[in-house]
Amino acid sequence: MARYVVVAVPGDGAELVADLLWQIGAEAIEERAAGERAAGERIELVTSFPPDRYSEAVAALRSAGHAPVEVEVDEAAYADAWRPFAEAVRVGERVVVEPRWQPTVARPGDIAVRIDPGRAFGSGAHPSTRLVLDELVARVRPGDRVLDVGCGSGVLAVVAAALGATVTAVDVDPEAVRATAANARANGVAVAVSDLPLTEVNDAFDLVCANLLAPIVLALAPELRRVVAGAGTLVVSGLLAGRWRPVAAALAPLEVRSVGERDGWASLVLSPPG
User: Fold this and answer.
1) 10 Å Cβ neighbour count for 67?
2) Inside any domain, residue 85
3) What is the rounded CA–CA span in Å between residue 219 and residue 217?
4) Domain range for residue 38?
5) pLDDT digits over 218-239, tens only?
6) Alpha helices in the chain (DSSP H)
């Protein structure tokens, strides 16, 4: 059994509470709709802490005025509970991202990318992922050099490769590296995937995508700027709608060219000035 902590917060205060969770030692944070949330009014932050920090972290949340709910979960059962309900996602006119264990819904002429995330993040259906997929389908051309930072299950990397790009993917989670490699093989595309830290990626890319939470994007901002080629594009997602301006400021001098929003999440498309 694994222990998780759930904190319900107003949507417009979620990023501040997420920052607090990171500061007191959160291992990961997942955002979920709470109740009948229609437009980002209220969300739940689900997080876990290292066993030796757990009690201290819960006490810190209570001291800060929050009411954390402690939950014990059978991880193996919970991790697979969503799989029977997974559905295909159509992106643009010709790209379909679909679960590998479900019958295909692709039509003749479609580019069908079949994904099994395993224990990594990303089936393609999350709004933050959809925002990046829209940009990839609109922007990637054969021969483009694409970098996927924090690749998770490899959805973005595999779609970019299927569109003809030369793709590099990195993630510090070994499960993500394994899932991305397996999904690339299953789809017959080449993705150079590794657990190499972004600080050790020395190339520059035509398109860099990073579907990460805002605190991680802020921490990686100098490196994300560095790996964008002179005429390249950076797409960042995993940001809360209406709360993306601090991220844009951290990524300057890259300039925001467009902002996408879906179901309370936001993405930014940035490129060098000029």
Assistant:
1) 9
2) no
3) 5
4) 2-80
5) 999 999 999 999 999 999 999 9
6) 14-23, 54-63, 75-80, 127-139, 155-162, 174-186, 214-226, 245-250
Q: Is 259 part of any domain?
A: yes
Closest to 38 (Cα-Cα) out of 7, 11, 67: 11
258: nearest Cα among 271, 272, 274:
271
CA 205 to CA 228: how far, in whole Å?
5
Residue 106: DSSP 8-state = P
Q: What is the pLDDT of residue 46?
A: 86
Q: Is 97 inside a domain boundary?
A: no
Q: Which of 212, 197, 190 is nearest to 28 (CA)?
A: 212
b/e sequence 173-204, b meaning 16+ C-beta within 10 Å: beebbbbbbbbbeebebebebeebebeebeee
The predicted structure's pLDDT at residue 162: 97
pLDDT band at 35; cut points 50, 70, 90: very low
Q: Are 156 and 133 in contact (CB under 8 A)?
A: yes
Q: What is the DSSP letter of 149?
A: E
Q: Does the predicted model carry a pTM greater than 0.85?
A: no
Write phi, then psi, for 70 (nearest 5 degrees).
Answer: -95, 130
Residue 141 clears pLDDT 90, i.e. is over it: yes
Per the domain annotation, does 113 fall within a domain? no
How many independent structural domains does the chain possess? 2
Which of these three, 47, 80, 113, is where a domain ends? 80
Q: Which residues of 40-131 form beta strands (DSSP E)?
A: 42-48, 69-73, 89-91, 95-99, 111-115
